[in-house]
Design brief:
By secondary structure, the protein is of the alpha/beta class. It has helices spanning 52-59, 82-92, 108-112, 114-118, 124-136, 152-164, 182-197, 209-212, 235-238, and strands spanning 8-21, 24-37, 41-45, 67-72, 75-76, 93-97, 170-174, 202-205, 217-222, 225-231. It has a six-stranded mixed beta sheet with strand order 6-7-8-3-9-10, with helices on both faces.
Length: 241
C-alpha cells in the first residue's frame, strides 16, 4: 500500500523578498521553494545574512513575499489584507523567541493567555487550557509570578506554553535556546522533541548543528537561497535504534 503524505501546512513557491536600502535593492530571499507538511520538524540553518530570519518572518506572516507565493493553512498570504493576516497569525501560528518577549506587567498565567485575549477567547475553557499547559511546563507553582521573578528557562517555558495555547498549525521558534545555559537548553529541546512526537509542526531557526540534529528536515540557507535541503531521522528516534 502506498503511504499517503501528510497534508501541507505551508508551501513556498519561488518566494523572493527584496528590501530597498537607499538606492540599492537587497534580495534577502531569492527563489525559495519548499513544503512543510503536518507533523514535520524543520530546522533552518545559515550564517548571519543568509536569509533565515527573513524566511522565518515570511513563514510567520510578519512579512510578505515581494514575488512568488506563500500559502499557509490553504490561504495565499498575498490575497489577505492586514486584518486577515493578523487573524491568521493569532489562530494558526505560535511564536517562540530567543528573548522570550513576555509582558513584564503580566503574571505567568496572563502571559500564557495573551493569544486568547487577541481572539476574545477569555473563557473558562481557555483559562483551563492555559493552566494545563503551565502544569505541563512545570510552572504550576509559578502562575502568579512576573517574568522578572523567573529564571531564563522558566521564562522560555512560559513562551512555549503561550505558543501552544491557541493550538496552532505551525510553531515557529527563533533561536529559542540561544539565551540559555547548556543544561536548560537541553531541557527546552527535550520539550520540542515531545511536541514533535505528538505530531506538532515545528520550524526551529538555529545556527547550532546539535539543535538541527533533532529535526526531521534540515534547510540550510546561503545568500537568500536554499543551499541544502535534507530529510533525516531525528535524534530522539536514532537514540532508540
Amino acid at each position: 500500500m502506498t503511504e499517503v503524505a501528510p497534508p501541507p501546512v505551508a508551501q513556498l513557491e519561488a518566494v523572493e523578498r527584496v528590501y530597498r536600502m537607499g538606492s540599492t535593492d537587497v534580495r534577502a530571499l531569492d527563489g525559495v521553494s519548499f513544503t512543510i507538511r503536518r507533523g514535520e520538524y524543520w530546522s533552518i540553518m545559515g550564517a548571519s545574512g543568509s536569509g533565515k530570519s527573513t524566511l522565518l518572518n515570511v513563514l510567520g506572516c510578519l512579512d510578505r513575499p515581494t514575488a512568488g507565493t506563500y500559502t499557509i493553512a490553504g490561504r495565499d498570504v498575498n490575497d489577505l489584507d492586514d486584518d486577515e493576516l493578523s487573524e491568521l497569525r493569532s489562530r494558526k501560528l505560535g511564536f517562540i523567541f530567543q528573548s522570550y518577549n513576555l509582558i513584564p506587567q503580566l503574571d505567568v498565567l496572563e502571559n500564557i493567555m495573551v493569544p486568547l485575549f487577541y481572539q476574545d477567547e477569555q473563557s473558562d475553557e481557555g483559562e483551563q487550557r492555559a493552566r494545563h499547559l503551565a502544569g505541563r511546563m512545570g510552572l504550576a507553582e509559578r502562575l502568579d509570578h512576573r517574568p522578572t521573578e523567573l529564571s531564563g528557562g522558566q521564562q522560555q517555558r512560559v513562551a512555549i506554553a503561550r505558543a501552544l495555547v491557541n493550538d496552532p498549525e505551525l510553531i515557529l521558534a527563533d533561536e529559542a535556546t540561544g539565551n540559555l545555559d547548556s543544561q536548560t537548553a537541553t531541557e527546552i529541546l527535550g520539550l520540542f522533541d515531545e511536541l514533535a512526537a505528538e505530531g506538532k509542526t515545528i520550524v526551529f531557526v538555529t545556527h547550532e548543528a546539535h539543535v538541527a540534529e533533532r529535526a526531521s528536515h534540515v534547510l540550510r540557507m546561503r545568500d537568500g537561497r536554499i543551499e541544502q535541503q535534507r530529510e533525516q531521522v531525528p535524534l530522539r528516534l536514532r537514540a532508540r535504534a
